[in-house]
Design a protein that fits this description.
By secondary structure, the protein is α/β, with parallel strands linked by helices. It has one domain: Transcription Regulator spoIIAA, CATH 3.30.750.24. The chain contains three helices and six strands; from the N terminus they run βββαβαβαβ. Helix 1 runs parallel beside helix 2. The longest helix is centred in the middle third of the chain and has 17 residues.
């Protein structure tokens, strides 16, 4: 797998970093994802998708444990990304596993809705 070339996103109230290990990619989110980060988030997820496809990743782990809030516009970026992964052929498809924090209710509700949209791609870990 080629190395990740994604610089961390750092805003005053939001952070996103990526790392890779073998065939897996891990995205770590912190803070609050709001209107200020939508464009960068959308580009970042598209880049992760391209990287995962080119490198035959088996899984992308999305760690939301330190993400306090995400608005619906940012969440739509995830719907678009998951749809891109879901649209791949079975041999090219990778899994997306979200790690959420128990007690942050928006994560549970939103991620379960996302999983319902793509049960063959999305899993949720608490």
């Amino acid at each position: 797998m080629s190395p990740l070339e994604f610089p961390a996103l750092a805003y005053p109230a939001f952070g996103l970093s990526a790392s890779s290990s073998g065939a897996n990619v891990t995205l770590t989110f912190t803070g609050t994802a709001d209107m200020m980060v939508i464009d960068d988030l959308d580009r970042y997820l598209a880049g992760v998708h391209d990287h995962a496809c080119k490198n035959h990743a088996s899984e992308v782990v999305v760690d939301f444990q330190d993400l306090e809030f995400m608005n619906s516009s940012c969440f739509k970026c995830f719907v678009t990304w998951v749809n891109s992964a879901k649209s791949l052929g079975l041999e090219e498809r990778y899994q997306i596993r979200f790690i959420c924090k128990p007690g942050i209710h928006w994560q549970k509700r939103s991620l379960h809705a996302l999983r319902s949209f793509a049960v063959d791609v999305v899993s949720i870990q608490t």
